[in-house]
Structure formats: C-alpha cells, structure tokens
Amino acid sequence: MWWVCFLLFLTPLVSAQTLRCGACPTIGVQSGFDLYRYLGRWFEITKLPASFESGKCIEANYALREDGTIQVLNKQMWERGRSIEGTAVVTDPKEPAKLGVSFSFLSPVGTYWVLYTDYTSIAVVYSCTDILRVSHVDYAWILARSRFPSEETMRNATEILEKAGVKPCELIPTDQTGCLDDTM
After folding, report:
1. Domain-by-domain residue ranges, the chain?
2. What pTM, to 2 d.p., does this model score?
3. Ramachandran region of residue 27, left (φ > 0), alpha (ψ -120 to 50) or beta?
C-alpha cells in the first residue's frame, strides 16, 4: 500500500512527462555508434512532452572534454535565453550509444540512448526513468543538424521511434522559427 502513496506523490512531478505502467522497456541502440562523429550541434525537432523543455529554438551541443567526459550544453529561447550545462559519459564501452547524463551533482544520472543517427542530418534518442519497476517515464527526441529537416528524414526518424514503442501521435514539435543564434 505504501507504493500507491508514493506513486500519488510522484504523479504531479511527472505530469508533463509520458508516464507508463511497468518497468522501462528493453530497446536496442545503434550498433557501431561513433561518439566522436556524434559530437557537435543538434537541433530538437520533436519530442515526447518534457516539463524541463518549454521554450523554443531548443538545441544541444556536445563537446569532448579533456577528461574524456562529454560537455552537454542545452539551450532554449524562453523569455530571454536560457541554457543548462551537463555532463555525459559512456556507461558501458561495449555499448557506446548508451550514455548517462547529469545536469547537477545532486541529480541522478539519466539515460540517453542513441537509437539511430547518420551523424550528418538526424538522430533519434530515447531515455527512460524507472519508478520502482511499477511504472516508468519515457523521453524521446528527434534531433537534426538543421532546424528544418526534410519530411522524408522526419518520417524515417519517426518510424524508428514507433518501432521502439513511442507513439508518433504523442510527439510534439519544437518551434524552431524566429531563432536568433546570438540571443542564447
């Protein structure tokens, strides 16, 4: 019975996320993933709802640090510009497409799994947070190297997410219009 109270407590915290029953699913990631080719600037094109992303012109920049970790710099236009810096690490060298990301030494490390990327135009990313193996919160993103990828590229990326169990109708587009790179 305690877990019901716990879940009721968590519900407001995940209300803007995609809460599902059961533990996180097992999802395959890109084999032969090359982290060095993945580094650089990516624009968020669409995503599952996430309360921490409510702005427009959302982008992420990944850069290798001297200590081997990856600097994650997320930016979004929200009133005036807003950014947050985090750290990503490869959690298992045998599966380099599975990264752990944290934006504060107080926050737990979240999953960041690259399901697919061609490195030059599109990336499909999935994350899942398990809640006592009773439920889980899904996050998913389609990222692109340009703010406006082709329809065919988006169709292919959406199909990859659908195969991973993400319903395309749940994805919300990120507004990439009117973005001024020097305001963030």
Report:
1. 31-174
2. 0.84
3. beta
